[in-house]
Here is the input.
Amino acid sequence: MAKWTAKHEAPEPLEGPIVATVTGGTITWFALFLVQLPFYGWFAERDLLWWVWCCAAGGVLGLIGVWYVRGRDAALKRHAAAAPAARDEESGAGPAPRTG
Here is the structure.
């Protein structure tokens, strides 16, 4: 079997409001968990408790995701702020002279 090779380059990843998206998903998982709690007995009778605990796990994993994407977002902002300073140092143009 021949090795597969791509016929075109992969597109750039889409950037968007990642922190808001993950936070919204986490809130949704926790809301679904809370909505199902009053029906815990109904789920238990039908051996469907995994639905309740799946929503709880989604909320907990979402909290980890929020922590992760907030750190990623902060790192991207730090990198973007440091990039112009690094370019100035490479070109030999130091900080602008002070007048006054």
Q: What stands out?
A: Residues 51 and 80 are 42 Å apart (CA to CA). The helical segments are 18-36, 40-45, 49-91. The first helix runs from residue 18 to 36. DSSP finds three helices and no strands in the chain.
